[in-house]
Amino acid sequence: MAPRDQVASPSPRSSTFQHDATLHPTPRSLSVVESIYSQSQDSEWSDSTAASSIDDSRPSRSLRPGIYVPTVTFFHAVTEDLDLPTISQHAVRLAKAGIAGLTTQGSNGEAVHLTHQERKLVTKATRNALDGAGFHAMPIIVGCGSQSTRETIELCREAMTSGGDYALVLPPSYYKGMYKADSLIEFFEEVAEASPIPILIYNYPGAVSGIDMDSDVIVKLAKHPNIVGCKLTCGNTGKLGRIASSVDAVTPSHAGSGFMCMGGSADFTLQTLVVGGSGIICGLGNIAPQACVKVIELYTAGNMEAAKKLQAVVARGDWAAISGGIVGTKSALESYYGYGGFARKPLPRPSKTDAIKYASGFKELVELEKSLA
Q1: Cα torsion angle, 225, 159, 229, 38, sign
Q2: Is 242 helix (H, G, I), strand (E, B) or coil?
Q3: Contact between residue 143 and residue 72 where contact means Cβ atoms under 8 Å apart
Q4: Residue 174's CB: how many other CB atoms inside 10 A?
Q5: Predicted local confidence at residue 373, as pLDDT
Q6: Read out DSSP for 188-208?
Q7: Is 309 a catalytic residue?
């Protein structure tokens, strides 16, 4: 697919769901909340904060409905150092498949295994690779979750200076037993107020000690002008439908308020679309991006029967991704595409038997993917 230098910008939030800003507000001057957290111990960040916070020259890359892929971070097999050339090549391969955008520093990107400096390098390499291939308008969402409000804001700022356009933020969970009723609301509001880039709420109970934000909380937070979307990896399509309806979410056929209500797994892509969602942020896209995109294309074209058949294949492939995790995904990339390598320790390296099992789980989907090329 040819590079897309221009993408449709969703309209500002509709009157049915009032907001004070458009989908991608420009960086703001430091507010009171921002100033509280601006004195970072990182001298590199401190030197650049003032300039970046008022930089109006950054291109505005709007989010649009579709498939977003949380990219894999690749490492050299012996040293476990970042493999930046492979990270770059993989990003371009995904972009050419017709996806709507990329996500760095997610679960598939082993964010928890990376230093701050490595996180920045991965996002910079991804941005440079996209720009170099002509995908200047493709947005990058950067995972910025941390256990403190302060570090989360710092990660959002580093995401921006590294070329990220949006921040994907998990709720903190280590001290969840001590939180008050409004602790998470206050957390997201303070992060949104201080972040120089818009944020998306990431609801993933499995990664945050079971914290499962309900639809009432997410709808309330969605009213903040710098909170522009959510990703629901909880798999609760009823919740997703309630949120999408309440915020008038953007869909492939409806501009709505501009709020992006995203599913978090490819195995419920069609279900997400049927209840009014905006698309999917799915790790399976690393293996079969075109197949994931095709489900949305068939649905948008009104070909529901074909979409259902394809969704079934995608769901079977996604089970292989879910059950094998990042270890299985990297193994399958190695088996079918000749690159992938291994996850960082202490994650295990697959045996030959494991590799055969992982490849078998993705076989049907990869054959479909290659037929779409």
Answers
A1: negative
A2: helix
A3: no
A4: 10
A5: 84
A6: HHHHHHH-SS-EEEEE-GGGT
A7: no
Q: How is residue 242 written in tokens? A: 């309630």
Strands (E), 170-246: 199-203, 227-232
pLDDT in tens, 153-190: 999 999 999 999 999 999 998 888 888 889 999 999 99
pLDDT above 70: residue 59: no
Amino acid present at 328: G
Query: Distance (Å, rounded) from C-alpha 240 to C-alpha 269?
Result: 12
Return the residue matching tokens 């079969």. Answer: 288
Structure-block tokens of residue 290: 């075109």
Tell me how far apart the alpha carbons of residues 86 and 289 are, in angstroms, rounded to a whole number: 17
Rounded Cα gap, residues 201 and 203, in angstroms: 6
Based on the number of CB atoms within 10 Å of its own CB, is 7 exposed (0-12), middle (13-18) or buried (19 or more)?
middle
Given the residues 120, 231, 294, 330, the one annotated as active site: 231
Question: Which residue, among 266, 332, 313, has the nearest Cα to 293 in the 3D structure?
Answer: 266
Rounded CA separation 136/130 (Å): 6
pTM of the model: 0.87
From CA 83, how far away is CA 99, in angstroms rounded?
23
Residue carrying structure tokens 């879910």 = 322
* Whether the bond into 59 is cis, omega within 30 of 0: no
- Residue 145's SS3 state is coil
Measured between alpha carbons, how far is residue 169 from residues 122, 139, 337 in Å? 18, 16, 31
Res 180: pLDDT: 87
